[in-house]
Design goal:
Length: 308
């Protein structure tokens, strides 16, 4: 293949598409795509036509498609799937069971195999795509880790170690999404009330919002109500999104949401999500309850349709 047409180095392709160098090499061996040529320094070089296909593949992976189903497909077929914009159900039965075996990751943690845990989480992200990784793996795995810790079967340092591993990976994923997916409204301010110290749910929500192209501003956890309101004003937030774990007092959840709703401008939407049962039983009025992580995309679509 001639190098007279525009080409990109493997580092440039990684930056452009958000697909890691190691993943590109694995796909090359496993699926026969991409098919780079070698430049004068014997380094991989990718024609722009292949880069375009890789961009399309990345979009489909983020929607839940598996590499084994899409990487080897002709680009024309991939474009038809992508342009149809139909969210097909993820075929969990066909995904490698080792990637969705939650106890496999728990055993890595309990065996203090940090490198193995990190590698398995990274590979699961590649296999599943962002949406399925967050909703179908990280969310239930985090619940399992929490339950195991509550039973006294995990030490505090082990629970913290897991949180740090997932936090690092999710932050990297968010950064990659921000670089590869164009940003557009809504502007979403993410935080928790002063009584809520758990931030992993907030980070998972930010990951899903970034996947949908939202502008995300995270304040972290335990922010006073007055500061949330000030930050929403300064950043012209369209939505203030709060996360609530199951550990938070339900009365504090309801009272905090009602107080914040009264302080925020009417035009600023207030979203609430997480594992606290009160959100399902008796959510406050004028608060949008995000039922689960997969509901975020639908809520973003509804907001954009209402503000088109």
């Amino acid at each position: 293949m001639s190098l007279t047409q525009p080409h990109m180095s493997i580092a440039a392709v990684e930056r452009d598409t958000g697909i890691g160098k190691d993943t590109l090499r694995v796909w090359e061996r496993r699926y026969g795509f991409p098919q780079p040529v070698r430049d004068a320094f014997d380094e991989r070089s990718y024609p722009m036509s292949q880069v375009e296909k890789l961009r399309t593949i990345k979009r489909l992976l983020d929607q839940g498609y598996r590499p084994g189903k899409v990487v080897a497909m002709p680009h024309e077929d991939l474009q038809r799937i992508s342009m149809a914009d139909v969210a097909t159900p993820r075929d969990i039965a066909q995904i490698s069971q080792s990637r969705l075996n939650l106890h496999h990751f728990l055993e890595r943690l309990q065996g203090h195999d940090v490198a193995g845990l990190q590698a398995d989480l990274q590979q699961a992200l590649v296999d599943l795509g962002v949406a399925a990784f967050v909703a179908d793996l990280v969310a239930p795995l985090s619940a399992l880790i929490g339950e195991t810790w509550m039973r006294g079967e995990l030490a505090v340092f082990e629970e913290h170690l897991y949180t740090e591993c997932v936090t690092t990976l999710l932050r990297q994923t968010i950064q990659a999404q921000n670089q590869t997916t164009p940003r557009q409204p809504p502007v979403v301010l993410l935080t928790t009330l002063p009584q809520e110290q758990h931030g992993l749910g907030l980070l998972m929500a930010e990951c899903m919002l970034a996947l949908n192209g939202c502008v995300c501003i995270s304040l972290g956890v335990q922010v006073p109500l007055t500061d949330i309101v000030k930050a929403a004003q300064v950043h012209h937030a369209d939505i203030v999104a709060l996360s609530f774990s199951s550990n938070m007092n339900p009365n504090h959840v309801v009272d905090g949401l009602n107080a914040l709703r009264n302080l925020l401008p009417t035009a600023t939407a207030l979203w609430a999500g997480g594992g606290n049962a009160v959100l399902q039983r008796r959510p406050p009025e004028a608060v949008v309850v995000v039922r689960d992580l997969t509901d975020i995309a639908l809520q973003v679509q509804a907001w954009r349709a209402a503000h088109a």
